[in-house]
Amino acid sequence: MAELKTDILVIGAGSAGLSVAAGAVQMGADVILVEGREMGGDCLNYGCVPSKALIAAAAAAQTHRQSGPLGIAGHEPEIDYAKAQDHVAEVIASIAPVDSEERFEGLGVRVIREWAEFIDDRRVQAGEYTITARRIVLATGSSPLVPPIPGLDGAPYLTNESLWKLRDRPDHLIVVGGGPIGMEMAQAHRRLGSAVTVVEGQRAFGKDDPELAEIVLKKLRAEGIEIFEGAQAEAVRGEEGAIELDTSDGRTIRGSHLLVAVGRQVNTDGMSLEKAGVERTKSGIKVDASMRTTNRRVYAIGDAAGGMQFTHVAGYHAGVIIRSLLFALPAKTKTAHLPWCSYTRPELAQVGLTEAQARKEYGGRVEVFRFNYDENDRAIAERETDGLIKIMVVSGRPVGASIVGAQAGDLIGFWSLAIANRFKMTQLANMVVPYPTISEVNKRVVGAYFSPRLFENPTVKRIVRLVQRWIP
Ligand SMILES: Cc1cc2nc3c(=O)[nH]c(=O)nc-3n(C[C@H](O)[C@H](O)[C@H](O)COP(=O)(O)OP(=O)(O)OC[C@H]3O[C@@H](n4cnc5c(N)ncnc54)[C@H](O)[C@@H]3O)c2cc1C
Ligand SMILES: NC(=O)c1ccc[n+]([C@@H]2O[C@H](COP(=O)([O-])OP(=O)(O)OC[C@H]3O[C@@H](n4cnc5c(N)ncnc54)[C@H](O)[C@@H]3O)[C@@H](O)[C@H]2O)c1
């Protein structure tokens, strides 16, 4: 047994833990990082990176099919699913050095590859090490939630952890769950040549604006994906290659593979949180706005905190708690400016309030402005005209933005900045974007706010007429 002492102990080397460890050590703190599994956590190994890599392979396949209208003979591509999975593995491998033990040891972090468990309110056991820390950061992330559907435990099923090991393309993939994981993987597999059926208990893309979600669903259905909403998965039977799934609306769906994507559960098993006085809620570790747990020395960030579960949110939490960890300064997290995006094609992105949420919160004070992609010249040139931006404005400041369409994930950052800084629409109007870009949709929706104020305003018209009479 070895006794170690440190300023900051970080448990979990995913996006959240790595960001805290890198920031803290480079600013002079003594940092120990404990990881029980793979450096890089979910995002690198089982989440964002592999999913976006597979989506890229699927998009390449789809380009072949859709290029006819551009004068390039469209045809059904030859797809080597195993090679597409090799591409996924190569992408992970090329990013892995950034998250590696070697890099972090090089920065001065002591990395221990063990599972951590609390001994008491300031001490943690990790393998042969007993670590005493001034501050402890729980960045233990989340794992796929496997619901208690009768028969599921006896049937073969995939999750976001096992999907990347498949070598043979599923003939017919049944996806349970119409959230971002389910819908991204449904479209990727359809484009790679599988038949795909999605079964969603409530509404697909349930956290997004339904009007915009519908634009994506229409597109996915047009690509041949069967999507059943209001269809809870109720029973599973079968074996490798022959799965049957019963739904609450009376269907029986038959397929070759089953992907379970019904949400996440926070990783705290085996950590003896109670020994440290760290409480849990139903969704995750209980934290206040400073990301402090019920033990003032212990913080929980990223997926472990059970709020918005995204890599950029994990990084944001890390940035906020660094202030309080290193300088003992008060620092609180906010959520209004935190965006998300589902990387289906078209992409579906949101920041701040949706239209329904804004109307509920602000009633008649909310104004909604829209601009369609089919009026954007670049979108027309690239035949990417399925899209819409909607912004919600209260007292001259945006409180929410919803975008569906090409590059929605890139475009939403502008609205995050605007909301984070409480920019006024008059400030946003100062932006000039290059023509022709998709980002003109941001400019044009700001224009939609000013158009009636300028072009349908009798006072403006009167002043213009007066001035025109007087100037030489
Ligand atoms: C399929 C999929 C696609 C996704 N796509 C996106 C996307 O496009 N964009 C986006 O923003 N987000 C995406 N996400 C979400 C994103 O992956 C997570 O929000 C992010 O990984 C959370 O980071 P984290 O550091 O909080 O947790 P994790 O990445 O889960 O890391 C936690 C780490 O802690 C370790 N650990 C746990 N318990 C212990 C212990 N007791 N001792 C030692 N180590 C421990 C785990 O082994 C793990 O490595 C996706 C998720 C999935 C599943
Ligand atoms: N692009 C991204 O940023 C991205 C991509 C993938 C995942 N993620 C992160 O991972 C999290 C988890 O994603 P997810 O898609 O697994 O979860 P989710 O919670 O977002 O969606 C799960 C869906 O499954 C449905 N469901 C639950 N039980 C069901 C049942 N028995 N039958 C049918 N449907 C059922 C729910 O109604 C819900 O719509 C996301 O919330 C997000 O934080 C992000």
UniProtKB/TrEMBL annotation:
Domain annotation FAD/NAD(P)-binding: ranges: 7-317
Named cofactor requirement(s): FAD
GO molecular function: flavin adenine dinucleotide binding; NAD(P)H dehydrogenase (quinone) activity; oxidoreductase activity, acting on a sulfur group of donors, NAD(P) as acceptor
UniProt-annotated binding residues for NAD(+): G177, G178, G179, P180, I181, G182, M183, E184, E200, G263
Keywords of this entry: Disulfide bond, FAD, Flavoprotein, NAD, NADP, Nucleotide-binding, Oxidoreductase, Pyruvate, Redox-active center
Cofactor binding description: Binds 1 FAD per subunit.
Disulfide bonds: C43-C48
Annotated Pyridine nucleotide-disulphide oxidoreductase dimerisation domain residues: 339-442
Binding site for FAD: K52, T140, G141, S142, D303
Protein family membership: Belongs to the class-I pyridine nucleotide-disulfide oxidoreductase family.
Name of the protein in its database record: Pyruvate/2-oxoglutarate dehydrogenase complex, dihydrolipoamide dehydrogenase (E3) component
